[in-house]
Structure formats: structure tokens, C-alpha cells
Write a structure and sequence with these properties.
Length: about 240
């Protein structure tokens, strides 16, 4: 991997306990939608690096990551980073990238902040007006926890070839209204979605337990292992 110098441009609140961080994009930095970087905070010392999928698409003029602000030394340091602070970036890396055969649709399955590589892919597809069908199954506990939900709803309402299937699993704990689907993502739901897609390539991103469960559900829904690509988000 190549190392680059960067600086924090701005922080943006996305959902409860979740924020985006926008960094300067080095002039010669190039990546594929779905790839990740390692963010290094030089002032932190010991555990000073963490891997993040990029939310920003290649055409954007900044590098954006998004994360839950959990109680770890790295996340505390990141959360308190002032605008203009120096950072280092290693990357890009990762193979969870969009397949090249535009005749095959893509099914994305995301849990929580696992949505980040798919936001990047969908922004890229919308910008290039790719002639390809995309379906996103996006699971969160509550609307309060659903990062990028408004952007995704806007893409689904006005974009061509993109369908959003959002579901909430803990609406009893929510203070916001929700008129959409509720309940966990299971084999039945994925079977319904795959029934409308021919030769889909399936992508899964989220916590390790969620990824393992979704791969099993996709298998039971008829997806072959060769058509399932996944990425675990450790300590996200």
C-alpha cells in the first residue's frame, strides 16, 4: 500500500452515535468503489490506525469515511480531531468491488455502518448512469441509527435501476416514525428479492456475525457461494 498525507476537512453527524469524517484527497490518490483505507492518527501513538471503507465515490474531491463513535482510544481520538488536523492514509485496498458484467444485477445486503462501501458504489453508479440493476437490503435497529438513509431514499425515488429495501428491527425503542418494513433480514426476504433478479451477484457487509448469518440466508435463498462476496467490519 502507498502512504499519503492528508488533513481533516470537516466532521458531519449522520445518525445517533455515527459520524462522517471528510479528509483532503491527495492529488494522485485513485481507488475503486468499495475499497478501503487505513487511517493513521500520528499523535495517538500505539493503536493509531484503523481500516475504513470509503463512502466518497472516486469522482468526489475528498475522502470520506463513516463510523460508529464507540469507546475505544482510536474512536475517541478521531471524534475529538479538530478541522485541519494532520492524518495519514494507507491504501487503497480491498476486493469488495463492483463486478464488471453490467448484464448481471447486484444485490447489496448491509447491516448498520456496513452500508459504507455500498453508498460509494451507488454514488458511482448514479454519476456514471450505469446500465445495471441494483437492489439494497439495508437493516438497522431504528431510523435513528440508519446512516445515509435519506440519501438512499432519494436515489431510489429518482434514480433508474435502483431499489431500496430498508427494514428496522427494534422499532419499540424508536422515537421516530417508520412506515416501512420491520423485522430481521432472513431467508424468506432474500428469496423474495432474489426471485426478481436474474444471475445476481450478492454483496454483504457488516459485523462478522451478521455477515455469516446473511451468507447462510443467501445460500438458503438460492444464491451460490461463487456469487456471494462479503466483508466483515471488525470494531466498526
Amino acid at each position: 500500500m502507498t502512504s499519503y498525507r492528508s488533513r481533516l476537512i470537516a466532521r458531519q453527524e449522520l445518525a445517533e452515535g455515527t459520524a462522517a469524517f471528510h479528509f483532503e484527497k491527495p492529488d494522485d490518490f485513485a481507488f475503486k468503489p468499495g475499497q478501503a483505507i487505513e487511517l493513521i492518527l500520528p499523535e495517538l501513538g500505539g493503536e493509531n490506525r484503523h481500516a475504513f471503507s470509503l463512502v466518497s465515490a472516486p469522482f468526489e474531491d475528498r475522502l470520506t469515511i463513516a463510523t460508529r463513535l464507540r469507546d475505544s482510544a482510536f474512536k475517541r481520538a478521531l471524534g475529538s480531531l479538530p478541522a485541519g488536523a494532520a492524518a495519514e492514509i494507507d491504501g487503497p485496498f480491498g476486493a469488495l468491488t463492483l463486478h464488471n458484467d453490467r448484464s448481471r444485477p447486484a444485490l447489496f445486503v448491509a447491516g448498520g455502518i456496513g452500508i459504507t462501501p455500498f453508498v460509494c458504489m451507488l454514488r458511482h453508479a448514479a454519476k456514471l448512469r450505469l446500465a445495471q440493476r441494483f437492489v439494497l437490503v439495508y437493516s438497522n435497529r431504528r431510523p435513528e441509527d440508519a446512516a445515509f438513509l435519506a440519501e438512499l431514499e432519494e436515489l431510489a425515488a429518482h434514480g433508474e435501476g435502483f431499489e431500496l429495501v430498508a427494514t428496522m428491527t427494534q422499532m419499540s425503542n424508536s422515537k421516530q416514525p417508520w412506515v416501512g418494513r420491520t423485522g430481521a433480514v432472513d431467508s424468506e426476504l432474500l428469496s423474495q428479492v432474489l426471485g426478481g433478479l436474474s444471475s445476481a451477484v450478492c454483496y454483504v457487509a457488516g459485523p462478522p456475525a451478521m455477515v455469516a448469518a446473511m451468507r447462510g440466508h443467501l445460500n438458503r435463498a438460492g444464491a451460490d457461494d461463487d456469487d456471494i462476496r462479503s466483508e466483515d467490519f471488525f470494531g466498526y
